[in-house]
Amino acid sequence: MRGFDESDCDDFMQRAKIGKRLKIPFYTSLVRAGFPSPAENYVERVCDLNDLCVTNAEATYFVRVTGDSMSGDRIEPGDILIVDSSREAVDGKIAVVWINGEHTVKRVHYAGDMIVLMPSNPKYTPIYVHEGDDFRVFGVVTFVIQKPL
Fold this sequence. Notes:
- The protein is mostly beta strands.
- It contains one helix and nine strands, in the order ββαβββββββ.
- The longest helix has 5 residues, at 49-53.
- It is globular.
């Protein structure tokens, strides 16, 4: 098993160019999901998603999800995953991996010398990584961005 090397994905992904950073107001008031209450209009600071979600800019990328194999972890088609390729895919972490010619997102489990890629939707079966498989971890999912229903 090899770790992520950016040259591995040249044919499949390209790093997006970051232009002007968009600063969005970040309010200190909490938003209640129960009964409404008067909200304060106090801006704590301005921030952008990079400040909130990216700890290692050089090793982080965004990727859009297709398929529903991870719906049990609330990762749905169309969601955007924020992936950090500098983090280790320890047991139980959700990671973007390459297995025998395809990228996929799964929960990584280690069972002795075997690696098992677990979907969280029960209609899918686990993927067992065998010796000789072309397998690489491209990074650990750190955040999921999704539109509300």
